[in-house]
Amino acid sequence: MIDRLAIEGYRSIRSLVVDLAPLTVVTGRNGTGKSSLYRALRLLAAAGRAQAVGELAADGGMDAVRWAGPERISRAVREGAPTQGLVRSGPIALRLGFGSADGLGYAIDLGIPVAAASMFDRDPVIKQEHVFAGLEPRPAAVLVERSGPLARVQADGGWRELSRSMAPWASVLDEHQGAADAPEIAGVRRAMASWRFHDAFRTDAGAPARQPQIGTRSPRLDDDGANVAAVLRTSIEAGLGDGIARAIADAFDGAELEIVAADGRMTPALRQQGVLRTLSAAELSDGTLQFLLLVAALTSVEQPGLIVLNEPERSLHVELVAPLAALIRRAAERTQIIVVTHQQQLADALAGLRIELEKEHGETLVAGREGPLDVPAWRWPAR
Predict the structure, then answer these.
(1) Is the pTM of this model over 0.85?
(2) CATH code at 196-353
């Protein structure tokens, strides 16, 4: 489980460290930085797949995503002085990391390359990576250290070299970097690979979830929701049918789910009270299909280490908020869940650890913090 998350220099987040719980709700008004936190988590997951540099480049490079404000927001600035003319004294850095109280953590430090008259000079480069034990990358807790081209791992009380020629775009988590024999790296990579993100399922008339799809056993929901019927059926046959039936009955006045199969293809359908025939996925409202997709994502056979839901209430009628909250709470009993939402009714109904964001002088902050002592401990390794 992720117990601590740290972000520095990303979009509206100058510096943010938060503790997380099995169920965490990130909320706040529009424009306070919820999307920045969500996208930072997605970028961190990309780092776990050794794809952070590519993701950043596709986003426009460091210039497009890095914190654009001053390094430090001084007392004068907080009292209304303009920020123009403030010069950065330190290196440009985008840092992401997480820690675990009883497991492994990971931190990555990205920067800009030294100009070399290359067409790839806009690509970010990996300056540092650390795999560590515990909640923060303290020197004594570091198990794997990468600095520039040099990567090494703790072994028998000393350091064993993994590589001294790592390319600036290559991650130590990449299994092709000669680190396959380092169990710490494999453990972090495996944990991060299990993270799942669900954001804005397609529910339009042409959505894949509305079309019958070839049905094979499916332990997890595809990003486009195309295999929703197969996921639900796989979960039912694995003994999770009671939870699925309960969620659907609670949401739709006793409705029952049916998985219709024909010629090897499957589609979900609902049998509702007072309706003489089942309604196929093609006939369901956008909100009903959205709820079915969320049920599939949260009851799948696969148990990811983390599920992040970005505004799951989209397209849902207000009457579905309570059933959705109940579904998420039950899912959080077996999988860590982060919900990003601006809907207070859903945030209240979830009743998990709440992180409310606010923005001050362009910076995303956690509301209610009175000073540095309220911030969880985290120290980025020096370059």
Answers:
(1) yes
(2) 3.40.50.300
The tens digit of pLDDT for each residue in 43-99 reads 999 999 999 998 898 888 888 899 977 766 655 555 566 655 445 556 789 999 999
Separation between Cα atoms, residue 233 and residue 214, nearest integer Å: 13
With contact defined as beta carbons under 8 Å apart, do 358 and 347 qualify? no
Instruction: Tell me the residue type at 216.
Output: T
Look at the block and give the residue holding tokens 């997380």: 20
Token pair belonging to 362? 């362009």
HEC string for the chain: CCCEEEEEEECCEEEEEEECCCEEEEECCCCCCHHHHHHHHHHHHHHHCCCHHHHHHHCCCHHHHECCCCCCCCHHHHCCCCCCCCCCCCCCCEEEEEECCCCEEEEEEEECCCCCCCCCCCCCEEEEEEEEECCCCCHHHEEEEEECCEEEEEECCEEEEEECCCCCCCCCCCCCCCCCCCHHHHHHHHHHHCCEEEECCCCCCCCHHHCCEECCCCCCCCCCCCCHHHHHHHHHHHHHHHHHHHHHHHHCCCCEEEEEEECCEEEEEEECCCCCCCEEHHHCCHHHHHHHHHHHHHCCCCCCCEEEEECCCCCCCHHHHHHHHHHHHHHCCCCEEEEECCCHHHHHHHCCEEEEEEEECCEEEECCCCCHHHCCCCCCCCC
| 155 Cβ neighbours under 8 A, 6+ residues apart | none
Phi, psi (deg, nearest 5) at residue 365: -130, 160
The position carrying tokens 């913090």 is 369
Where do the CATH 3.40.50.300 domains begin and end in the chain? Answer: 196-353
Query: How far from 195 is each of 1, 10, 277, 326, 352, CA to CA, in Å?
Result: 10, 20, 38, 21, 19
Q: Mean pLDDT in the chain?
A: 91
